[in-house]
Write a structure and sequence with these properties.
Number of domains: 2
Strand content: under 5%
Domain Mg chelatase-related protein C-terminal: 102-199
Order of helices and strands: HHEEHHHHHHHH
Domain Magnesium chelatase ChlI-like catalytic: 1-93
Helix content: 40-55%
Keywords: ATP-binding, Nucleotide-binding
GO molecular function: ATP binding
Distance between the termini: 22 Å
Pfam family, one: Mg_chelatase_C
Structural class: mainly alpha
Radius of gyration: 19 Å
Oligomer: single chain
Length: 208
Amino acid sequence: LDELPEFKRDVLEVMRQPLEDREVTISRAKFTVTYPSSFMLVASMNPSPGGYFNDPDAPVTSSPAEMQRYLSKISGPLLDRIDIHIEVTPVPFDKLSEDRKGESSVDIRKRVTAARNIQSKRFLNNEKVHYNAQMNTKQIRKHCALDESSKQLLKTAIERLNLSARAYDRILKVARTIADLEASENIEGAHISEAIQYRSLDRDGWLG
């Protein structure tokens, strides 16, 4: 979904149940039907109506009231159900024009395939769960155990950012996936730290 805040809020709120339960319930006068609805939501939005809120070199043209109206269409409960938030800042010309060699698509594909294989083995005896995003709270506790330093790191983030219990679970699932991509049996502090960075819309200065 492009330009997420341009959708009506009640339309966006309808996604909360399928994002959480991976099913959608339709109720009519005489019957109620529940359908499977497992999908991947990818959405984008500007940080403000004018689009320059996070650009240090451009003036902010929107008033605080306009920004609040714009961002208020995205509710906290909806954001809670999105696993990864990433703030994309403007890229300077020198960065665009420089010759950089990053990880190739072939190598990335190999790591992703290996991580999916790890998850397939992890949930081999569970016909309802096939990958980390599908884990419930009990399974998260089993497969996302943390050492004391990682627990303290996560505790500090939860308290400082005032994150919800749902965001806590999502951080653990994302950290588990980051560890899988590195073929790490245990979730380390670096994995937790990276997963916390992917909750950028939970921070002050965005949605309240």
